[in-house]
Specification:
Elements (H helix, E strand, L loop, with lengths): L2 H33 L3 H26 L19 H19 L4 H22 L4
Helix pairs in contact: 1-2, 2-3, 3-4
């Protein structure tokens, strides 16, 4: 597959990931608002989850072979040298964990628990997901 075809496929997936992440953020904010009354924390949880979705979609599209060479997105030039699937998954898991903790604890504990859970899940996903 030529570099231009790979670039075009990544651009198409990237555009769709923006739309999907936007709707995911709105849904996550709505869910967080139903569970807790802290608008600032709800917005942060929704934003981190949406960023995770935005980073993860091109990664999973690239390893599934959607118009690409079935190579992880970080192996392409100009995409950053980190494990996109692990970082995106860690942000999503950390956001859901913070939301779950927030229903029973204070916002400070929710932030700390979400961050810790996100880091641990990112480290586990980095080992479990394909990187080359």
């Amino acid at each position: 597959m030529s570099n231009q075809q790979v670039e075009d496929a990544l651009i198409k997936v990237d555009r769709w990931s923006k739309i999907i992440a936007l709707f995911f953020a709105m849904g996550m904010f709505g869910l967080a608002t139903l569970l807790a009354d802290n608008a600032t924390l709800n917005a942060a949880i929704a934003a981190f989850a949406a960023i995770g979705v935005r980073i993860s979609i091109p990664y999973f599209a690239s390893i599934s072979g959607y118009g690409l060479d079935q190579a992880p997105s970080q192996s392409y030039a100009d995409t950053g040298n980190y494990h996109h699937g692990a970082v995106g998954g860690g942000l999503i898991v950390g956001s859901f964990l913070a939301l779950a903790i927030m229903t029973v604890e204070t916002p400070a504990v929710a932030f700390a628990g979400g961050a810790a859970g996100g880091v641990v899940s990112m480290l586990l996903l980095r080992e479990g997901l394909p990187s080359e």
